[in-house]
Specification:
Layout: H1 2-7, H2 71-98, E1 108-112, H3 118-127, H4 134-143, E2 153-157, H5 163-172, E3 180-184, H6 191-200, H7 206-212, E4 246-250, H8 255-270, H9 277-283, H10 288-301, H11 308-320, H12 328-335, H13 344-347, H14 371-378, E5 387-390, E6 398-401, H15 404-422
Antiparallel strand pairs: 1-2, 3-4, 5-6
Helix pairs in contact: 3-4, 6-7, 10-11, 10-14, 11-14
Length: 423
Amino acid sequence: MRAAREAAGGDPYPERTPRAAEPPAGGPEEWPESPPPRASRGTAQADKPDKPDKPDKSEERVTYRRKKGHPALWSFFIALGLVIIMASSVLFYVWNGLRPPGASDSPVRVTIAKGMRAKSVGETLEKSGVIRNAFLFSMWLKLKNEGSRFQAGEYALTPGMTNGEIVAKLNNGQTIAGDTIKFTIPEGFTVVQIADRLSKAGFVDKDKFLQALHDPSRFNGSAWVKQIPAKAELRYPLEGYLFPETYEMKKGSTEEDLVNRMLSELDRKLNQLPEDWQSAMQERGWTPHELLTAASLVEREVVKDEERPIVASVIVNRLKKKMPLQIDATIQYLLDKQKEKLTTADLEVKSPYNTYKNAGLPPGPIASPSLKSIEAVLFPTETDYLYYVTKKDGSNTHLFAETYKQHLKNIQTSEKNEKNAKK
């Protein structure tokens, strides 16, 4: 077969792939084109166009996103800063305006006219160099509820004094010596005794002084005056409210001036009591008027300070049991003079102040109590005593008893002591 194909001029090996012809001598331009490469069997989607090449990472442009700000937060901090600055400025202004000016050894004479308002007082003090800022001083007075009790007169004030020291001096009427009057009200004095002492010294008219005490609305020296009950049986509504103390006031002060000064001293002294004194008063169900009433009983009954809380406990215990107090001092108050010994007739006197005939406290105080007596009835000693009697041995003390039987024995002891003292 191969010989026949050869004779016919054919390829004796038709199955073989023809060999590539040698390149002609003429050069590469005459070189026949190679057939396109055949797609391999395992290649998928050979007919699809090739994907574009990925760009080189080294040629990528790196971009960063700028973070957005928080305008609301920044506004808050700015506003907060402004508030802090303003608050600090205000505080500094107040602090600087209320602090005392530079201290000085030379006192300044300052005149406070009668009826002068707190604002005018502040302006006068600022002009004198005693305070820094009259406006802040007047605001401070309002905050402290001060200024209404300033006494008229000429004062010697020293730059460097605190606001509290200035107010205390103006309230107390501590005017320049030489233009003042000075007097002392002993503890346990009644208003009648006070009027006698002041009139004998030539400071007041006794009748005008006692008449003024019948109208508490005329006075503003004490905050407690407004709570005095309107009782017809009160002998003197302001009895017990004129605090016993030594006073120095401007010469020529009126009866009203003197009463206001003593009333303001009551408030000042009550502020020296323990902070819970009003709570203690309310726990007993007392008003300030009843507190002063009970304290005045202790004041007139007791000489020794150590016995004040004990006698106060007897009063409290008898009130709890609704027993008549049977205190001799209430009878003495009705007599307007001290008797060495009360008679049976004295004990029968008809009056709401007679604690032998009437249970409970009398209508009002019977004298001006001391601060120690006021504190004693607020915080009495815890006892079961219901009776007491003076020892009459010269010690100015008492014998106390829980039962009436023991009280009778104490009376016998007291009488023996009295007889022995007379020998």
